[in-house]
Specification:
By secondary structure, the protein is mainly alpha-helical. It is built from two helices and no strands. GO terms for molecular function: proton-transporting ATPase activity, rotational mechanism.
Length: 122
């Protein structure tokens, strides 16, 4: 009987020994599958990072353009307001001078003539 037990133990050890390489092959296949999935995921991450960088660049460029346009509009509004203020002041001065019977343009002309006379005297 002892020989039968030895054969049975050898048989059990052999079956276990065969199972180990099969399990290793299965694990190796799983590792390769996981490795491929990781590589694919890393490529997707890189693509997403590049897309994010592109979008951020476009956003920054658009924001810069918007700031430039707003600055231009602000300066243009200030220029127009100054021109309107000067126009209003000139017309107000003209109204006052007309009430007093003096033309602002005539006064400017008289000043210019006097200035020319002074320059010719020197």
């Amino acid at each position: 009987r002892r020989g039968g037990q030895q054969i049975q133990l050898c048989r059990t050890a052999y079956i276990k020994a065969i199972d180990v390489p099969v399990e290793l092959a299965s694990l190796q296949t799983s590792f390769l599958t996981i490795d491929e999935a990781i590589k694919t995921t890393n490529r997707r991450i890189n693509a997403l990072e590049n897309t994010i960088n592109y979008i951020e660049g476009e956003h920054d460029e658009g924001f810069f353009r918007l700031e430039k346009i707003q600055g231009y509009k602000k300066r243009e509004i200030e220029r127009q307001m100054l021109a309107a203020k000067q126009y209003a002041e000139e017309h107000e001065a003209e109204k006052i001078s007309l009430k007093k019977g003096i033309s602002i343009n005539a006064a400017h002309n008289l000043l210019a003539v006097e200035k020319d006379k002074d320059e010719h005297r020197c």
